[in-house]
Design goal:
There is one protein chain. Helix content is about 70%, strand content about 5%. The protein has about 240 residues and is mainly alpha-helical. The chain has one domain. The strands form 2 sheets. A two-stranded antiparallel sheet has the order 1-2. The chain has a two-stranded antiparallel sheet with strand order 3-4. A hairpin with a 5-residue loop joins strand 1 and strand 2. Helix 2 crosses helix 3 and helix 4 packs parallel to helix 8. The longest helix is centred in the N-terminal third of the chain and has 29 residues. It is globular.
Length: about 240
Amino acid sequence: MTNKKRWLIVVIYALAMAWVESAVVYYLRSMIDRIEPYQPNPLPIVGGFGRVELIREAATMLMLLTIGMLAGRDWRGRLGYTAVAFGVWDIFYYVFLRYMCAWPRSLLDWDILFLIPLPWWGPVLAPVLIAALMIAWGTVVSQFERRDSHWLARWKTWSWTIIGVCIALYVFMADALRVAGQGTDVLRDLLPSSFNWPLFLLALAFMAVPIIDNVLWHYRNATPLNSLNKENHNEEMA
């Protein structure tokens, strides 16, 4: 199977997962009257939904990682396909949710993005931008071979991404961190009033460093994986 076909299969899988995720969220929010998440008492206590939802989120991450592990043939490919799956799943989750219940009305609508370890709040546009970066990076590293740089050089590049991820996590959870010591009820009732766009865009720029590095390297001297496989096959036949 060519890498393009692998990429396409991962995308199809992520699209199917996005529909299932959107449907589950649509059902859940309809049951608790929270189609619009940004409203008073955004996380009401309803039976055992809270615990089940936390496990479902963790299971979703495991499923995305699993498809990446199955599609990739080395650690770069596995991480790349996982990133593609995550990005497509995240973007189309909102696309399908919009189709199902007319929400979000705009990319600036607030959403509860995640619950582990604290509630993440942010405009829909924020996770969509990160998802787009993940698709771009995952596509580059899963489709093209790169064997030039020493591990230390790669680590220096990735350190920018780690810094960017930490900053983005802080931005998403800043309000929750501020009231975390006041108890679970306060966290459940939390409604953030502003989003730190300058700091988030700085985080996004840091996270884009490995993408820029890989793209620049590819345009200089990268060899597509499919071409490399054909060359190895021809050598074996000879």
